[in-house]
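User: quick one, sequence for these tokens?
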């Protein structure tokens, strides 16, 4: 296979060589130059909607969107001029002006990408105050809560649901200021073809999508001496939990996990062994069938919401 043509460009005075067809964002990352993004999700959502990745290209009018603008020979790019920084701050301000900013009580507080960028660009007050959309929270599904008062219309959830999972349960509806991410006829996720895989939560940069939290009700049952409480863990948990406590990835912590659950006053602890074995056999068979007939296709396990892995 013939090698691809290499393109030479300059980013912030640094010479960069990269394959033809690459974007400015890819070239910048190759040179360890940071360009902020919000809507960008590699190989899944590369649409340039949020405009956080704007840069200046010498000889061009206006700004270029780094995540979709292809490089060209001799291109000169600047990512941190005063005009670029100010434009990004305005973009953030406009996003935040129509955003539920209850950060302290948000499930993504401290891990929110929008919050992180606001801190990095010192956006500590909203200049462009105006009308705000108000959406009802959808919490009817067994595992996912939608709060689109925190949505920034990045469309990462749409791309993941449609292009990775092959479901297409959500999409952008309406136009202009009334645009929002929703379902067919604006129904609950509980009433459409959503499989509750949770991959949209993983893709969301804010708290617009989150897992349904039943922690309070579990504590209530554990404190009730008249209730016999059983916990049943997925097999993956015993090999994944240790990493959260600084252990080597893949460490088997079955004993520690069971002991901890007993200390929490669970009466019985079970492991979903048999059901998981059937799942592995079925999904392994499907995977091999997809590979032999069509090559490798996107696939996720069906064990439980957010526990699936994309192969």
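Assistant:
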């Amino acid at each position: 296979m013939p090698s691809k043509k290499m393109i030479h460009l300059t980013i912030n005075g640094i010479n960069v060589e990269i394959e033809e067809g690459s974007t400015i964002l890819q070239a910048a990352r190759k040179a360890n130059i940071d360009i902020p993004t919000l809507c960008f999700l590699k190989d899944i959502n590369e649409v340039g909607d949020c405009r956080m990745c704007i840069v200046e290209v010498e000889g061009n009018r206006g700004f270029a969107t780094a995540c979709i603008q292809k490089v060209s020979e001799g291109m000169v790019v600047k990512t941190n001029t005063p005009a670029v920084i100010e434009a990004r701050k305005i973009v953030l301000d406009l996003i935040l002006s129509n955003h539920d900013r209850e950060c302290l009580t948000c499930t993504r507080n401290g891990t929110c990408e929008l919050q992180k960028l606001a801190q990095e660009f010192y956006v500590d007050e909203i200049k462009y105050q105006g009308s705000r959309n108000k959406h009802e929270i959808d919490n009817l599904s067994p595992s996912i809560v939608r709060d689109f008062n925190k949505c920034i219309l990045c469309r990462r959830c749409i791309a993941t649901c449609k292009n990775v999972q092959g479901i297409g349960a959500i999409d952008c509806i309406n136009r202009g200021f009334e645009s929002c991410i929703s379902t067919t006829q604006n129904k609950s996720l509980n009433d459409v073809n959503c499989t509750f895989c949770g991959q949209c939560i993983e893709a969301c940069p804010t708290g617009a999508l989150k897992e349904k939290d039943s922690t309070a009700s579990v504590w209530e049952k554990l404190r009730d001496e008249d209730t016999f409480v059983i916990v049943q863990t997925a097999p993956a948990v015993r090999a994944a939990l240790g990493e959260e406590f600084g252990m080597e990835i893949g460490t088997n912590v079955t004993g520690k996990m069971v002991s901890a659950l007993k200390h929490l006053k669970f009466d019985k602890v079970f492991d979903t062994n048999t059901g998981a074995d059937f799942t592995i056999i079925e999904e392994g068979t499907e995977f091999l069938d997809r590979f032999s007939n069509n090559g490798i296709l996107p696939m996720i396990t069906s064990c439980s919401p957010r526990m699936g892995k994309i192969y």
